[in-house]
Specification:
Elements lengths: L20 H4 L111 E5 L6 H10 L5 E5 H5 L15 H23 L3 E6 L10 H7 L5 E5 L3 H9 L9 H11 L9 E2 L6 H17 L5
Parallel strand pairs: 1-3, 1-4, 2-3, 4-5
Helix pairs in contact: 2-8, 4-5, 6-7
Length: 316
């Protein structure tokens, strides 16, 4: 007998579990044939029966009576069936440009720190409030005057962000090769003091450029204006407000005796520095004698002095 012929069908789609689609959806069972198997060789198909799912139909056999053939779904665009001649390559996928999302963390651009200008005087009808004004303050005084304690307290109790920049702390960043002034003042100690002043000046300008007030403390001598106030004016700017903290010699000696480490000086050195600081009298800079004042009281006097300096900046 002649075998059934026709165009071959594409192989059944293989699912992930290895079962064919025909096995998942079997056709109706017909007596005399095995479900899902091809007919025996030499036997004719039953009249009016539909071909078994998954097998090629016999030539001349009609579809199941009363049912319409279901056309296969159209292929997806760009899909080439297996075994068919390759057509033109599919177009490349279109990449949609996604704009970059703004970073929530990472680098934060900061404004450059320039020289600090003179503070603008408020209107005559309004009293200046140094507690809410962005300021750059230089607290001058001998060793034992209480500069560091007053500066820290003043910065801690302001109503606006304020930084305390201590020259001694920055100078002691140098570990190997530190030039200790207690061993004698020389070119190395002088160079490290100047480097520390310049570093503090750069830090103050950066803080002020970002709206943070600063208070710096240093033992600036009036008989060396180029190195002292002149250096601070170059590093920070003319808007720096200098204030001298100068208690009596007895108070300075008592406070120096309570110090430890390389910040404690001999009584002779303390007396010599205190005598040089007396040259600030008559300089035009505001001077606070805190011999009988504690730290909070001195900070309050400092606010009053700064209010007058804002209204009428000193010439220095």
């Amino acid at each position: 007998m002649q075998h059934a012929v026709g165009s071959p069908l594409p192989p059944p789609h293989q699912s992930g579990n290895g079962w064919s689609q025909a096995a998942q959806h079997p056709g109706p069972h017909h007596p005399g044939t095995h479900q899902g198997s091809a007919p025996h060789q030499g036997s004719a198909p039953h009249q009016g029966s539909a071909p078994h799912q998954g097998s090629a139909p016999h030539q001349g056999s009609a579809p199941h009576q009363g049912s319409a053939p279901v056309p296969p779904p159209p292929p997806a665009p760009g899909f080439t069936p297996p075994g068919s001649p390759s057509g033109p390559p599919p177009p490349p996928p279109q990449h949609t440009h996604v704009p970059p999302q703004p970073e929530t963390t990472g680098h934060v651009p900061l404004p450059p720190g320039g020289p600090v200008g003179m503070p603008s005087a408020p209107p005559a009808t309004a009293a200046p409030d140094p507690a809410t004004t962005t300021l750059a303050v230089l607290l001058i005084g001998p060793a034992g005057a209480g500069k560091t304690s007053v500066a820290k307290y003043w910065a801690d109790h302001r109503r606006v962000p304020t930084a305390h920049i201590s020259l001694d702390d920055v100078r002691e960043w140098v570990r190997s090769g530190f030039a200790d002034p207690q061993s004698g003042w020389n070119d190395n100690s002088e160079a490290q003091y100047r480097l520390a002043r310049r570093t503090c000046g750069f830090a103050a300008r950066n803080f002020l450029a970002n709206g943070i007030s600063c208070i710096l403390d240093d033992a600036v001598f009036p008989d060396r204006p180029v190195v002292g106030l002149g250096g601070w004016k170059r590093h920070v700017g003319p808007g720096l407000l200098p204030v001298v903290l100068l208690p009596g010699l007895e108070i300075v000696l008592e406070r120096n005796a309570e110090r430890t480490g390389n910040r404690r000086l001999t009584d002779e050195e303390v007396a010599r520095i205190h005598g040089r600081m007396a040259g600030w009298y008559g300089s035009g800079l505001p001077i606070i004698d805190n011999s009988q004042l504690d730290v909070p009281q001195t900070a309050q006097i400092l606010d009053d002095v700064l209010a007058r300096s804002i209204a009428s900046p000193p010439s220095w």
